Amino acid sequence: MIATQFMKDEYPDVKQDLYGAFVVRGIELADRRGLLAIVIGDTWMSIKSFEALRLRLLSGHSFGSFVHMRDVSNHPDIFGANAAFVLSMAGERSRHAPFIRLTPLGSERKEQDLRVALAEQAKDAGYHLASGEDFAAIPGSPIVYWLSEKLRRVFAVCDSIGGRFDAIAGISTGDNGRFFRYWHEVSAARIGGGSEGAPWAPHHKGGASRKWAGNVEHVLRYAESSVQQMKLLPGFRHDGNADYFKPHVGWSALTSGPPSFRAIPVGCTFGSGSKALMISGNVAMAEIAVLNSALTLALLRALSPTMNYEVGHILSLPMAPSGANEVVEGATELIAESQRDWDDAETSIGFTESPLVALARERP
Questions:
Q1: pLDDT per residue as tens digits for the range 264-319
Q2: Could you give the domains of the chain?
Q3: Cβ atoms 191, 184 nearer than 8 A
Q4: Backbone angles phi, psi at 212, to 5 degrees
Q5: Nearest-CA neighbor of 295 among 276, 311, 318, 315?
Q6: Residue 185 has pLDDT above 90, yes or no
Q7: CA distance 1 to 40
Q8: pTM
Q9: What does DSSP assign to residue 321?
Q10: Higher pLDDT, 256 or 168
């Protein structure tokens, strides 16, 4: 407890992990023309909570060399998932330095791959050149040394989504077991807009990776009396309530698969695990097309390698180009087809009959 308070008081920018304090203290102790060589964990390289540390490293300093030893476990407590680097106190941020990426398990294999990377100096061998200026051009300054120059330029030349629109988190009830149900667990007559007579509202809770449309499986008890009960519970948050029931673009904040974005229709609430980008109409169609593209997947892997896609990550992404009618038409068709596919299953709130029954009725 004393150590935790000490970290908060003395090293507030890096209080998340003790290794951050070693980095900061090393910079303070180094001669102004000296070098800092250190081996630490690698979680600081991308996550939002370590942005201040990254800015500290990039401010008036430059990397001399960097070896990134990643393991398939992707777990910071396992020795082997580390970042080893030399930092020059007087170096220019524009200076390009070698970054070497070593991914296999086992020290012998890592040593072998390191020798190959140094000999070949090729990206295919895990050898990359990058500078502090490259990282500073990306929102949050993640140390994504493998990102190509063309992808870095996307952030510099394109307007960001956050420059025009809002993305928000939704409700956290404090007791999901009490206030959530699958839509088929309640009477259809009691599913509406959250009135006392129809207290259950369709709710987008996130769910599995699915593009374009679908994943509205739950209902939220959202009458005024229910909200008053939630307010008494620890953990209750009523974020974004002014935008409930509006059409929006939704996605799951945490997923084991690739990110996927969906058109959520009028009449739905959304939760803390299912964020909402508040756009609709043709703009939403064009943006969903870009968000579900391979480009966005590459950019999000740079912004959030942990596969936790928060509001800040999405707002940093580039806006879709305007006037692309063929993109809007294509996305509109894909969304409609995805919704039809979703409604063909009995688990969909829009299900009316089995497609096999409908097909049999059409046949003579």
A1: 999 999 998 888 999 988 889 999 999 999 999 999 888 887 778 888 889 989 88
A2: 2-157 (no CATH), 163-362 (3.90.220)
A3: no
A4: 80, -55
A5: 318
A6: yes
A7: 23
A8: 0.81
A9: P
A10: 168
Q: How far apart are CA 19 and CA 38, in angstroms?
A: 10
Residue 262 CB neighbour total at 10 angstroms: 27
Neighbours of 219 (CB within 10 A): 27
Neighbours of 196 (CB within 10 A): 10
Q: Give the C-alpha separation, 276 to 248, whole Å.
A: 6
Q: In angstroms, how far is CA 230 from the centroid of its own chain?
A: 28
The β-bridge relationship of strands 269-270 and 167-168 is unpaired
Long-range CB pairs of 187-191 (<8 Å, 24+ gap) are 191/219, 191/349
Q: How far apart are the first and last CA of the chain?
A: 77
Tokens of 2: 């004393």
Contact 257, 309 (CB under 8 A): no
DSSP 230: H
**In this structure, which amino acid lies at residue 199?**
P
281-291 and 294-303 helices, crossing angle to 10°: 70
- 364, two tokens: 């003579």
pLDDT at 71: 66
Is the pLDDT at 323 greater than 80? The verdict is no
Sign of the alpha-carbon dihedral angle for 332, 337, 338, 342: positive
CA dist., res. 304 & res. 294, Å (int): 15
**CB contact set of 84 (below 8 Å; sequence gap of 6+):** 37, 38, 39, 66, 67, 68, 69
Give Cα separations from 116 to 103, 144, 157, 308 (angstroms).
13, 21, 36, 33
Instruction: Spell 27-60 as b/e; 16+ CB within 10 A means b.
Output: beebeeeeebeeebbbbbbbbeebbbbbebbbee
